[in-house]
Amino acid sequence: MAKGGDQLLAFRTLIKAEAKRGAWTFAAEMQDSRSYLGDAGTAYSTSWVNPADLLQAYAEVKIKDLPGQTTTSVQMGRMTLDIGSRRQVERVEFANVIYNYTGVHVRSRTPGGAQWHALYVVPVTRLPADRTALSDNDISGDEEATNRKHWGLHYIRPDSFTALAPGLTAELFVYGLDERDAKDNPTPNRHYTTPGFRVSRAPKTDQWDLDVEGAWRYGTRRNTSNASDLRDLKVRAWTLHAHLGRTLDMKWQPRLVLDYDYASGDKNPTDGRYDQYERLFGSRRTD
Predict the structure, then answer these.
(1) What's this model's pTM, rounded to 2 decimal places?
(2) What are the φ and ψ backbone dihedral angles of 132, each rounded to 5 degrees?
(3) Which of 255, 213, 263 has its CA nearest to residue 238?
């Protein structure tokens, strides 16, 4: 059992600049995440430290007056992503270092508020990664993990069940991950497809609110990231989040919530299957 204590003083500085010209937007955002006061026992990681790096650098063009009066934007370059409940893909704000990606993100919105999201990106590997460099706040440019591809389609429609209850938003989505080993980035060679759904109603005084989201994952992966591990395991995993709440009509507006979360686990590590549901690009802190 470990003894003693630890401390860490963390700073995160974000600076963003945008330039607009007609239908085009050009943006760049710098992220500077540092830590101090750690010692030999501090658990340093790239979730805490990533000094002076480019978080976002993209061009975005808006295309109007498409069929159905839909407005579409196409974002290209290095970016952060926030979609829906943020359980599937999120600009992770709780960690001191924000996740980012490089690729294309297409967003469409109808006059009624419905949204389509389509993305094809590669995650950005945060560097440096070794403990000594992290403890010294060394600067090293982040690099795109081109051996890992993340894609998705996500549809969001407000007021989907007006006959049943007003204010219900329905979502359908499918996300995928395809990765292979690289010389400096070994992986479990995951090939996942994750379809899912969500039905939600935002909290409002003196009204019931709810959020039900489920996802099922199938595909293959190796048991480890070791290059000598060549056995593909069948992946079958799922997760469910559900809560029902009510905000009371009182001056301090207390909200009562009944919450349930489930994620499947791997019951038998020798059966040739991998049943553990991995969060991947969504934050555990969302819920």
Answers:
(1) 0.92
(2) -65, -45
(3) 263
